[in-house]
Amino acid sequence: MKYNFESIIDRKNTNSLKWDLFGDEYPMWVADMDFYAAPLIYESVNRKANHGVYAYSFVNEDVYDSYINWWKKYGLDMKKEELLFATGVMPSITSIIRAFTEIGDNVLIQTPVYHVFFYVILDNGRNVVENQLIYNPDSDDVETAYVIDFDDLEKIFKDPKTKLMLLCNPHNPVGKIWKKDDLERIAVLAKKYDVIVVSDEIHCDLTDPDMTYIPFASLDDDLSKNSITCISPSKTFNIAGLQSSAVFTQNKGFYEVLKGQLATDFFSHPNIFSIDATIASYKSEDWLNELREVLFNNKMIVKEFLEENIPEIRLVPANATYLLWLDCSKLNKNEDIESSNYEFSKTLSEFLREEVGLFLSPGVQFGQNGDNFLRMNIACPKDLLIEGLNALKEGIDKFKS
Ligand SMILES: Cc1ncc(COP(=O)(O)O)c(C=O)c1O
């Protein structure tokens, strides 16, 4: 390996959300990685830091060229005038919701899904409408483990109050790359019922080594023009703290409205490090390719470990993201408790934290239909991963007894 994915980095007392927020626990929750940034990013940030002046910056042309060149490999021919800088994917989605829906409108999400989708809709006074993904617990194939309920999707789209769909492509937390056929079916229905598709593609580069994702905007022009795509180097290159992202749309009308809204919301001004770091990120493809190998190996380690040591927990087949979706339903002995307050995944997650100091995200956070699951972040050196897995085994043994 050319790059260092082995060193265990002490992130404690660095004001890290992942490591410092909850005290002395081993955190495998929030989606950031315990690896050093790619050398070019590190150099770009240091160059800026050493300059010693930290005043206003602007978004230069090179940033747009970086996105344009990177997305060519995904078959997308972006134009500068179709891209807007934003300080994050969630800020972008906030602006999109404010610009394209009214208070009281419905926004569709496919649960279980990234929990912040719930907050961004509800906090802006819109309604969450869930198109629950269908889970096939016996499937060993990523294509059938989770599938879209298209009948339900159409029913929700038919409601005139439904104005927007937030698509997660690839999907967090189930780790699935949506197929072209899925994207096309969504796009055709959305167009038919005049629902705008917002495709959050923040995890798009983090696929299994032999896999590639399909951008929603690579569909036929008339379908793509009914969409807005959110992209960022932040997950791929672990630079979420630098707050850099972009919004892409081939719809000129959407573009103009969004440009105004991002400016109104003050989400269009870059910080001093973000522009150079974005450009450096998209020059770091060889680092990314090694990372994808490391993440895939980690996933295989977890799979084998669970099969041998904790057969009650099943790894849901996935082909993207470093967030593993663990089906713990066999450990849930309270399925028939008729209490609306009982949340198994919270109980299990809290138990693991208290008993063995391991912090995994409770699945219910991603929607009620995620309640039999835990989400595990495996973007860490192998030694740390094994430590986490041993803690999980110890914790589950205690939980069973
Ligand atoms: C699907 C998805 N969208 C957005 C974000 C956050 O994006 P940002 O930090 O750019 O707001 C995350 C972070 O985990 C995510 O998983």
From TrEMBL:
This is cysteine-S-conjugate beta-lyase. It holds the Pfam family Aminotran_1_2. Its EC number is 4.4.1.13. Coiled coil: none annotated. GO terms for molecular function: cysteine-S-conjugate beta-lyase activity; pyridoxal phosphate binding; transaminase activity. Its cofactor is pyridoxal 5'-phosphate. CDD domains: AAT_like (cd00609). PANTHER family: PROTEIN MALY.
